[in-house]
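[job 4471] stage=fold_predict status=RUNNING
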Amino acid sequence: MSTPLLEVRGLTAGYGGMPVVRDIELKIGQGEIVALVGSNGAGKTTLLRALSGVIRSSGGIAFDGQDISGWRPEQVFALGLVQVPEGRQLFDHMSVHENLLMGAYRRRDRVNVDTDMERVYAMFPRLRERRSQRAGSMSGGEQQMCAIARALMAAPRLLMVDEMSLGLAPVVVDQLFDVLGEIRGQGVTVLLVEQDVFSAIRVADRGYVLEIGAISREGSAASLADDPEVQRAYLGL
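[job 4471] inference complete, writing structure tokens
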């Protein structure tokens, strides 16, 4: 791998002085889809919050060769590290279109914002149909589409998606995972944080397994899928 887009070195983070993730080492190359998988409570969301600057951490975080350790969330966001949070966290009483505009609220390139709006509506035709509907009145799958589209409106360089499949029907999950390839095709790198290990490995180039706050395995998606321990613990094989 050439200079990674994101490089994490010895990162430790937690709450109230108690570490939840410890000595995390990972790299993500430009244009990759990288899966971070593990069971509930393994520390996946804590790691994303540390990368986003929402919680304090020790160790090193570099983005495109620049040390961003200790940066505030708004600084990290402005660089292009954009998170789709677990639970979607939409503005429920605003319309779909208004939610998407909120994703672009820091941007000043209005012509490109209009172009990106058309792009996300083409990616998610259901959102175009629902553009005037209150976001909180949609189905869970439609809300997840809206959350991803809102993040894309921020023009991310690295899209960090937290538990995209949580609580959704399998057919909707398949549709959303397929969209990740289209997002990558538009030049956006993806860090996919998932409990659904099978689906995550299916779309990823590489992956990391997080267990009890530490990376236990890493490798290509194919090697993780063939790993007997991963099969036993996460794939039901």
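[job 4471] summary: Residues 92-153 form one domain.
[job 4471] exit 0
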